[in-house]
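Input.
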Amino acid sequence: MEESPDLSIGPYVVQGRVGAPADEPAAADTRGFLVAHRDDQLRSVLHLARPATDESRLLIQTFARLGHPAIPTLIDLLDHEPEGEPAAIALVFELVQGVSLARLKGYLERGSEQLPDAAIWYIGHAVVGALARAHDTH
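Output.
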């Protein structure tokens, strides 16, 4: 699909890629779109799950029930069938502001620094809590 700043999926208008410069157009085959709902300008993140199978839909529904502070909330789920491309499931998540761990790691490595022990414990606790919730729910 051709790059287009006017790309829309259902009621959502794609505004760019998460983490990309504002002037970079949204590529249709890229995950992590920043989107806004046409009615209320709710800013959120959209991912495309391909292929759209019953198994992937079941996993997505399981994810939607997790409800944990370390897991972004699934706001919407809709079918996306662009012309000439395989069908996908469009997942719209809450937009969580913050720095990715990959970016933090790169910053620390450039300065030959390490993450403080308290931060490692905090991140580990959040990840383990989210994993525990996922295993309890599934």
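The beta strands are 8-9, 12-17, 33-37, 43-49, 74-80, 88-94.
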